[in-house]
Amino acid sequence: MVVAFINPLTVDQVVEPPKNAHITVKKKFKLLDIDESELINMLQSEIGTQKGIELNLGDIKDYDSDNNRVIEVLNPNPWISLHNKIMECLVLHSESRDSHFEGINYYPHVTWKLKGIKMLDPKPLVNTSHKINKLYLIQRIHPKISRAKIITRFDLI
Predict the structure, then answer these.
(1) Are 10 and 150 in contact (CB under 8 A)?
(2) What would the pLDDT profile of 27-83 be if each residue is shown by its tens digit?
């Protein structure tokens, strides 16, 4: 996955993404004909010219039910544009695992309640703005628990 965490993290750090406020830019995918280092180089050349993005968060919203709640992104267009840019970069070299949440169905948001479980306290994030200067490539390391390792960090200019 390619994500933008609100708080900076370090390479090789193990995290549970739902418990760290973030925007998912590219959901889970499987590499087809390239390896991890080629993926990193490809993403770096694509993201290397990307400017930092302002993240303007609004109110708490239901996402399909009260069991899934999010904080809305008030400026979705730069996030949609970045999502599409990364999707185009990966289209020939990966297989999306959650394609129903991508492309025209991409919805930038910060999840705080997932499947009825509170992942983080949303109150400090409601109606706030954050300058996002880093994207992260993360890899899931546990088959059942949403635990991931930060593979690399991409600095935005």
Answers:
(1) yes
(2) 999 999 999 999 999 999 988 889 999 999 999 998 877 789 999 999 999 999 999
57: domain CATH number is 3.90.1140.10
Q: How far is the C-alpha of 140 from the C-alpha of 11, rounded, in Å?
A: 14
Number of domains comprising the chain: 1
The tokens describing 17, both together, are: 């993404």
| Chain position carrying tokens 């965490």 | 5
Alpha helices in the chain (DSSP H): 36-47, 76-90
Q: Within its chain, how far is the Cα of 7 from the centroid? A: 13
Q: Give residues with Cβ within 8 angstroms of 152, minimum separation 6.
A: 11, 40, 136, 137
For 45, list phi and psi in degrees, rounded to 5: -70, -30
Q: Cβ–Cβ contacts within 10 Å for residue 97, how many?
A: 13
- Residue whose pair of structure tokens reads 């990193």 in the numeric block: 40
Q: How many residues does the chain have?
A: 157
- For 53, the domain range is 2-155
Q: Note the pTM of the prediction, 2 decimals.
A: 0.93
